[in-house]
What does this fold into?
Amino acid sequence: MIGANTLQEFVVARQAEFAGATGDLSRLLTDIGTAAKMVNRHINRAGLSGILGAHQSNGNGSTNVQGEAQQKLDVYADDTFTRVLQSCLKVGGIVSEEQPGIIHVDHSKRGEGRGYGKYVVCIDPLDGSSNIDVNISVGTIFGIHRRRSPLTGPATAEDFLQPAKDLVAAGYVLYGSSTMLVYSTGCGVHGFTYDPSIGEFFLSHPDMKFPEKIKVYSINDAYINRAIPGVKDYIKSCRSEGLTARYTGALVADFHRNLIQGGVYMYPGTVAKPGGKLRMLYEAQPLAFLADQAGGVTRCHHHDLLHVQPTELHQRTPLFTGHAGAMARLQDAIEQAAVRQPM
Ligand code: AHM
Ligand code: MG
It folds into this structure.
């Protein structure tokens, strides 16, 4: 594809390959790229401008809908992404990790006969935010669904509560040693690296695939003994085969490393928290969609996560994701353990 180097050029060139494409999704993806640049700029200045630390509301630390302390950058990233998405005419509603309900987007107030957009966006504006104060990578994760409810009215919960297999696009932004935007519309996974001197994302990783040979397993060591039976057995086998452990505490960074170098990410449910920690709509589902496109598999204990029907906007799920071969071995270990010790 000659000349398709920037994110915008690439997205538009790819759109031309779909008969009947209107350009609406391309517009939405490039808007997400714009918001990512704004957040990236803020993250890079964080240490200098006194914006690290917990967000204060009326002199008290604030918490999000899930009772977790919000960092200042969490709030900035949420404001930025939701503002940019609300101004995109293609968006009919948003669910953000940082806000309790659906953020309704009604363009009719902007005149010119515009109503409600045909896409809804699920977003974790700043994932892994406990890494912020210690200058370690963080990310943004997003998933885009086509609405199911009539476009004559506001978006409804059923628009968001769709299985990951029905996403029309998903992706993440990794704010690391360089900033990358990785996305898929169901035709492969493509990665773009941000050049801050030009202010553009450039295609750097076309058609990303999980390597067949895995080098890494990623899990919070503190949960290994509390994980469902089988996870520990699988980790034992990884260790005996000479794999190494890597875990940053930022899902995007861990997923990205495993996608490039070959690895399996595990955040199991535990006895105390059988549902795990990670959120289905804006953490697990988008990564499951990307993993599938990159030759991977994603599971939540006993099911293929791609096909799981979500029931709540902020639902949590166990998450295991990586190359299909490695995931088959993990599944095998979990199934064998279940036979030995039914739950
Ligand atoms: P957050 O959305 O509140 O930042 O939490 C999600 C993060 C993931 O990025 C990461 O994989 C996980 O939480 C780490 O959790 P833990 O500290 O329990 O290992
Ligand atoms: Mg998160």
About this structure: The chain is about 30% helix and 20% strand. The chain has two domains: 7-205, 216-340.
